[in-house]
Amino acid sequence: MCLFLSVENIKLSYQTPTGETEAIKNVSFEVEEGQFVSIVGPSGCGKSTLLSCIAGITDTTSGSVFLNGKKIQGINENIGYMLQNDNLLPWRSIYKNVLLGLEIQRKLTPVNIKYAEELLKKYQLWEFKDSYPSALSGGMRQRVALIRTLAVKPSILLLDEAFSALDYQTRVNVSKDVYEILRRENKTMIMVTHDIPEAVAMSDKIIVFSNRPSTVKREILTGFDTDRDPIKIRGDNRFQKCFDIVWKEMTK
Predict the structure, then answer these.
(1) Mode of pairing for the β-strands spanning 36-40 and 205-209
(2) What is the model's pLDDT at position 73?
(3) Among the residues of the chain, which ranges form H helices?
(4) For residues 209 and 215, what is the distance between their CA atoms, to the nearest angstrom?
(5) Could you tell me which of 187, 136, 194, 115 has the C-alpha nearest to residue 158?
(6) CA-CA distance, 247 to 43, in Å (whole number)?
């Protein structure tokens, strides 16, 4: 693996009626190409805000983010962003929803359409292409949202609590689906989650944030193979040891 994304001394402050509030304080970390990284930390500590900074949606007060050695300035087409809600448009079919990103980026070419269709077929959604989002389960909707994101061929995916709206069993199964899809498609991932077991099961590295203003308390390598099963790994003794380390950092 080689260095792919670098977050360097990110600071973010904003104005409130009582003065300036510091949300993120000198956050730095690196992500290697193909690596899956999770960010965990207390509620409201700025995890999602940091993803917005990486995506180029939110301007930082100071510091920089580099992707493949190039500074990110504004929204970058090489970065895919999945939110908690799937944001599928109810009046568009599954097929039309998957093509939406390509339409917005004006990349609706025959080659890209074929790639999107291949993704739908590969991940068992082709038979639902003419259905509407209301006909699909929550887990299937998230898979559609993922394929819509992958269709524009991003280099890295940012997942912001992407499974938190699902019930527990569906969430575990969907996280496995997403893990396997992203590994097969050779993507790099940064995921914000409040679910420690999810972070341990899916990640090569876990970054623990402090209370606000956010700083990096610790980076923890999980040590699991990339071809692991995110469900079966939960029964591994190493899983429990890693969970205990993360939990201790979160609570001290």
Answers:
(1) parallel
(2) 87
(3) 47-55, 94-98, 100-104, 110-122, 138-150, 168-184, 196-202, 237-251
(4) 6
(5) 187
(6) 14
pLDDT at 1: 59
Q: Is 12 exposed, middle or buried (0-12, 13-18, 19+ CB in 10 A)?
A: buried
Sequence-separated (6 or more) residues with CB below 8 Å from residue 193: 38, 39, 40, 159, 161, 163, 164, 199
Q: 83 with 160: CB under 8 angstroms?
A: yes
Q: How confident is the model at residue 195 (pLDDT cuts 50, 70, 90)?
A: very high
With a CB cutoff of 8 Å and minimum separation 6, the contacts of 164 are 84, 171, 193, 194, 195
Residue 96 phi/psi, 5-degree rounding, is -70, -35
Per-residue pLDDT reduced to its tens digit, 51-73: 999 998 888 899 999 999 899 98
What's residue 152's pLDDT?
92
